[in-house]
Amino acid sequence: MIDAEPAVRLLGTIDGTRRFEDALADLFAGDGTVYLISGYFTYQGYCRVRDDIDSFLERSQENELIVVVGPASDQFSARIAEDLWAHDEHDQVSLYKRARGLHAKLYLRDGPDPVCIIGSANITQVAFEYNVELSAELVRDSIDHPDLRPFLEWATQLTANATPLRRRDILGPVQIGCSLINWSNKARLLPPRNVVLRVVPVLLLLVVLAGLFRFV
């Protein structure tokens, strides 16, 4: 008796039967539109799937990549945008920003062999190798399957409400400013004592360290 394909495949870091990094790379093995929605997207994480992205875009000009990120300096590396823009010869890549505390992690491909990954893992080397992450991979025979359609609709709605990422958005001072705005908005939701004891030191440290994220 042949075991049936599991309805949901769990993805781990180094302790799962299937690693998140491998599943993310496999998104680019099929054709269609790939959505990458990641709360944190570092350059080291991008480099781990860069060759897969290149192959995906070169294989067919009909293939598209849609990326939605938080533009703050502690969330997104400007080098990713610069690299994608430099190699996007056929306008297949669209980059969007959601500045209000983007924390979602959704990775999806439509097309003839659709797949969806949702869980805790961002596209970072830390998520690939260190953190205890848990994500779920769903593979179905149609993007209209009720298990996948809600995720596609959510991704398209998020993209429709997002703003195209511009070159000025990835300037260092602009990204650091976005980080400070995000943290100050979060601080308003906390009791004053917590702000003084926890958030203010973090803000001061962020000013010093945020620029370094550009190179991570």
Automatic annotation (TrEMBL):
Protein name as catalogued: PLD phosphodiesterase domain-containing protein
Key words, A-Z: Membrane, Transmembrane, Transmembrane helix
GO MF term set: catalytic activity
Transmembrane annotation, as ranges: 195-215
Residues annotated as domain PLD phosphodiesterase: 98-127
Taxon lineage: Archaea, Methanobacteriati, Methanobacteriota, Stenosarchaea group, Halobacteria
